[in-house]
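Sanity check. The docking grid for flavin mononucleotide depends on where the pocket ends up, so I'm generating a full predicted complex first rather than guessing from homology. Inputs follow.
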Amino acid sequence: MNRRSIVIGGVATVATVAAAATGAVLWSRQGIGQWREAAAGIRRPLNADLSGTAALAELVRCATLAASSHNTQPWRFALGDSALTIVPDFSRRCPVVDPDDHHLFASLGAAAENIVQAAAVFGLSATVRFADEGDDGRVRIDLAPGASAASPLAAAIVGRQCCRGLYDGRGIAPADLDLLAAAGRGDGVDIVLLTERPAINAVASLIIAGNTAQFADPTFLAELKHWLRFGYADAVATGDGLFSLTSGNPALPAPVGRALFDYVVSAASENAKCRAQIASSAGLAVFVSERDDRRHWLSAGRAYQRFALRATAIGIKQAFLNQAVEVLPQRRRLAELLGLGARRPDFVVRFGYGADMPWSLRRPVAEVIA
Ligand SMILES: Cc1cc2nc3c(=O)[nH]c(=O)nc-3n(C[C@H](O)[C@H](O)[C@H](O)COP(=O)(O)O)c2cc1C
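Predicted complex below; grid placement will be based on this.
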């Protein structure tokens, strides 16, 4: 082989590697335009000029922007003349992480709260009614003419997100903590705010123990993987699930992400992330239900959503860290640690100041209207 052929061979290799790298980048960016468009579309500001069925559809859009466990969006909506009914979609339940449907009903509660907060924008007042235990779990929201009013919580519906990035470690002024606490209390639901490091660290160790147990459970990992969306195109195609970017991970083509997940993600890597996230936060909020039943889970979901809207309205970020309530032995230890007796700790949410994260998507409104 002469010098010239070595040079030509080298150039060809570099060109092939560069072409492969460019191809990989283009592949991983596939769908980015549609993702941006979808994210901006679903989070456009509320249109207060709408009335009738168009206003009801706008209320449904608000409901769908609520938090839901694994972004499963386990809901459908039936529109009536003077009511909106949220129908649970049990085909979207997560039997491993949420065996008793606590999170599913909390998600319905979060959706209901967005409707309650947005109703006044359309000159309506909303009353949430929940059928009794043993019923099919529908949540009926009666709508009656009311005073028209804009509110900071209604305006925050399109800007709220679970912000999973690192926060900046700054503490929160007592007056703002009071606002968060007031928003996070509900019917049969209380909130415990922890801002002292020893108390935060005690809960953090239960979160880490819960996370370690979840990552040792192949059924938990399989369920999680089912709801992960690795790439833009993947996220846009379903409009649901946990998109990589929202957790601070890179967007990858779905087949690559799926193949890498088992090798890259581990209890150790996730525990390190959780520790850093908690260390960067101003505090933890624990939501607590008086009774352990659907009615209270719904109320806890409403309380979380109100808390998150209030936080958004005053520039505070928040995100769930529910490992300590999802794993039963850790949930019992958490109840003991906080002296809750028979009451159920529903969620653990960290809060603080930080930057926005990329948006998660939703299925189109037309797809969830029954
Ligand atoms: C009941 C419930 C439990 C949740 N648990 C977690 C959790 O443990 N960890 C997490 O990162 N997000 C959790 N989430 C947040 C959802 O993943 C999030 O709401 C969803 O991905 C949509 O994103 P968005 O809230 O930013 O719009 C939970 C949400 C709800 C309603």
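Relevant for the grid: The CA atoms of residues 35 and 41 lie 10 Å apart.
Also worth noting: The radius of gyration is 22 Å.
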